[in-house]
Amino acid sequence: MRRVKIVITLGPASLDFEMIKSLILTGVNVFRLNFSHGDHQSHSQSIQKIRQASEELGREVAILQDISGPKVRIGKVDGVLKLHHGETLVLAKEADPSDSKVLDISYPAIIDMVNIGEEVYFADGTIRSVVVEKTSQRLSLKLLTDGELSSHKGVNFPHTKLEISAITAKDEKDLAFGSRHDIDIVALSFVQHKEDIIKAKQIMKQHNFDPTIIAKIETTRAIENLDEILSEVHGVMVARGDLGAEFGVTKLPRIQKHIISVANRANKPSITATQMLTSMKENPFPTRAEVSDIANAVYDGTDAVMLSDETAVGKYPIEAVKVLHESIKDVEKEYPYVKDFKPVNSSDAVAKAAVQLASNLKKEALVAFTSSGYSAKALSRYRPGVNIYAVSHSLKTHRRLNLVWGVHSLFVMPKNDNPSKLLYDFIKRLLDENRISMEKRFVVIMGSSSGKKGSTNLIRLLDKEGMESVLKYKF
After folding, report:
1. Where does residue 80 rank: exposed (0-12), middle (13-18), buried (19+ CB within 10 A)?
2. What is the set of active-site residues?
3. Range of 427's domain?
4. Are residues 435 and 368 in the same domain?
5. pLDDT tens for residues 263-281?
């Protein structure tokens, strides 16, 4: 089984119901809905298709809602604006219709926050400039590169501390939508510090909405505040598009490794995103560099890799997912399994001991009985060389574990406070459904008080004799 998970973005190229089914069968674990595009009606239709396809195939997948956040963009440009090194470009609180090189931006108050000498980037960092003059209404920029600029291109301020909320009025409406449609995972854009997460949680609480929260790391301040951000979220996304604009593409590999490493230590899932297979938007085969990029992310320890335009608007969405799947599988043949992190609590210590037992005793799999998903994630943290299976009474947990390295959710079982009865029902169901033989050998972790979050304190070794012993229980 493949351990690193695959996240793909739905779009015009992949919205067909049969295409969604094919994508699931090809190996997609999580479908991303990009709320920077589309409306609530179209997203509602996508959710319905995903859930229906999942039900028909008997494969639960997760849905990720990627909210827009305060993406700073220029306003409307008449055609294409050709720019040249050394020229002056102006950012203003209001555009000047008589001068094509005076541009407005989506958040005019930012002009007050930028200082002379700070750099301003456009179009994912492909056009660079520096502030040479400033008034209360305008920034005069000296262009450091040539380039072409069209309407609504993104703007980055890599060295400016922007005091703007990561949650916009649109985001609040989108989160309300997410709550109504039982979204599994929410990705928050342009997070800068933990207060952004706290605000989002407060909004979610108003709607009785408790999804897995992923912080997209895409700004300088987010890197500076990574530890405090991780303390408030369930996971992170290495958003390489804006990170590249902020830091420059040559620094991206180091930054990627840093984010993933910190997330691994904190036992928080990580997603590596942006331009994994860009050439496959137009071509049925990847470049060698792209396959190496995928391999590098897997070796770094990422939990998931993500496709954006490749599956949203590309010509070969199925082929792109196949390339991801096959590339990951090949790396996993030589992946350095079994990591030695220090346990953070007693449940984590139980998980570490179980991974070591499975490795030393050559057991074939690990099984976690988990209410919240924590026990399964704890096993995943240590990157065992055997499969991890999760069993939960919660469908939400079942779906959300699609984002966690190495974890495969078997099925949802009724909640039972008796761990012996739970184990009996588990083995009986596996045998009745012909999923295993009595020759299989497992290491099982569970709690003496089943169904309670953070209560994992038991390890059970199951082989033929162990299963026969459990099946003799009388209930």
Report:
1. exposed
2. 32, 73, 216, 274
3. 346-471
4. yes
5. 999 999 999 999 999 999 9
